[in-house]
Give the backbone structure.
Amino acid sequence: MSAISIQQMADRIASLMQDRLGARGTGLEAKLASCGRALPRKVRHAAKAVAEAAAMAQNPKLLLQIDHATLAQNYDICLHHLMALKPYSGFWSGTLAVATSIAVSLLVLALLLIALLRWRGLI
């Protein structure tokens, strides 16, 4: 595995983090710092390992020390998890859940108010 392919792996994970989680920054390390807590522990550690391998790949002597099987496994863990997410799923699903809860609560309150007013003979 060449340094270019390792860097492409890191770039692919970084772009998926930006698309799916809304991560900010340039490079995988910055994106992990931005929203690494949104990832499960296993995926976060795998992404950190890929980022470290990408940094090691810049030096030809350190490139020889990279375990390619472990790198491929970590890349697959990250890719599998990030591909399963919908774009901005963390932010938008939470916002949509809160908005839906508020709307349903207001609807139930309005129906109860109308029922109370009708029962009291005011409507």
In short: The longest helix spans residues 89-119. The CA atoms of residues 95 and 114 lie 29 Å apart. Helices lie at 3-21, 28-35, 41-56, 60-63, 68-84, 89-119.
